[in-house]
Design brief:
By secondary structure, the chain is mainly alpha-helical. The chain has helices spanning about 25-30, 30-35, 45-50, 60-70, 75-85, 95-100, 110-115, 120-125, 135, 155-165, 170-180, 195-210, 215-235, 240, 245-255, 260-265, 305-310, 310-320, 340-345, and strands at about 5, 10, 15-20, 180-185, 185-190, 275, 285, 295, 305, 330. Strand 4 (about 180-185) and strand 5 form a beta hairpin. Helix 1 (about 25-30) runs parallel beside helix 5 and helix 13 runs antiparallel to helix 16 (about 260-265).
């Protein structure tokens, strides 16, 4: 479901209706780089496997991050940074990190400067007296970006938005949780141990069931395989990669390449993937694992403390997961057809 924008009023499925207080945000939202995000699904490859679970786009997420920052009383520069932080995303979101692997899964961030500087964004920011750093260096804003296991506006919106989209939380619960956030130079912290534990455990559940399941990993492998094959045949270019999901998928499907088509068939809803623990054919892929350990500020305490320190049970849960968290996957699907079997060297 897309955000509805009427003049300065935005109606967001997660954060409700609110008014934009700064004209620079109005202009930026109307700009081509931000509008392009309407065409990029937040979930990347797994949108095709689970379209009803993952309906939201990078545009909605960007609006949500901006809204959280406003609720945290961030300055206008940081709100702008939140709105623009995903502008360099490629089609199919983080699928590109399987096509061009990196440890941090941050391929798109390499293009922040070029995408911004070749657009109308610098002129808009200059007209409103907003620093260009807000568009070029999102990592310099502590409420917007923090490394794991900390909280930040980016991580909060994508997690809560995915949980809400999957029916795991209500809009009211998300808004109640946000009301317990406290802005600090170390990023957002929570004023409630109970709220911190609520979110941390839901984050673990989202990691396991929404972001790193066998089906999620398999869908990313399949779409990445189609893109790699299309690049190798010359039928897919960087211009396609930096378009939208629909445009890039149209290019892939129009190639008529049997291997590309075989990979794309593995994205159909109902396709099954499973972990191969013993013998049998398998393919390998990688997925990023994530956990949070929020900082909590308590009355009469001078500094925030880790949830895992305050709740020993949660500390044990994290310790137990350390030996279970896999980044390399050995997967198989009964739907893998002869075209892929003949063209790829699978393990066994």
């Amino acid at each position: 479901m897309s955000n509805e924008v009427h003049d300065r009023i935005i109606a967001d499925v997660l954060w409700g209706e609110f008014e934009l207080e700064h004209e620079v945000l109005v202009e930026l939202i109307a700009s081509e780089p931000v509008q392009r995000l309407h065409g990029i699904h937040q979930a990347g490859a797994s949108y095709y496997l689970f379209p009803s679970r993952h309906p939201h786009t990078r545009f909605e997420h960007s609006i949500g991050v901006m809204r959280i920052l406003a609720l945290l009383r961030a300055g206008i520069d940081e709100q702008v940074a939140g709105l623009l932080h995903d502008v360099p995303h490629t089609a199919f979101s983080h699928t590109v990190d399987i096509v061009f692997p990196s440890v941090e899964h941050n391929f798109h961030e390499q293009f922040q400067h070029d995408i911004v500087m070749q657009s109308s964004i610098p002129a808009i920011l200059e007209r409103h007296g907003v620093s260009l750093h807000a568009a070029l260096e999102p990592d310099r804003f502590p409420l917007l970006e923090q490394p794991l296991p900390d909280l930040c506006a980016d991580r909060l919106d994508y997690a809560l938005r995915d949980l809400h989209g999957a029916g795991m939380i209500t809009q009211g619960e998300a808004n109640e949780f946000i009301s317990h956030l406290v802005p600090t130079p170390r990023g957002p912290v929570l004023d409630s141990v109970e709220m911190a534990l609520w979110f941390a455990r839901l984050f673990l559940k989202a990691n396991d069931t929404l972001w790193t399941s066998a089906e999620e990993a398999g869908s990313y492998w399949a779409l990445a395989g189609a893109i790699r094959r299309a690049y190798a045949t010359g039928g897919f270019t960087d211009a396609d990669l930096f378009s939208t999901d629909d445009a890039a998928m149209h290019t892939l499907r129009s190639l008529g390449d049997p291997i590309v088509n075989a990979f794309l068939e593995m994205l159909e809803p109902g396709t099954e993937y499973y972990h191969v623990e013993g013998g049998g054919p398998f393919f390998t892929t990688h997925m990023k694992q994530r956990v949070v350990d929020p900082l909590v500020v308590r009355p009469k305490r001078s500094a925030p403390e880790r949830l895992s320190k305050l709740v020993p049970e949660y500390s044990r849960e994290l310790d137990e997961r350390k030996g279970q968290r896999r980044t390399e996957y050995r997967l198989w699907s009964p739907q893998i057809g002869d075209d892929l079997r003949q063209s790829l060297a699978f393990g066994s």
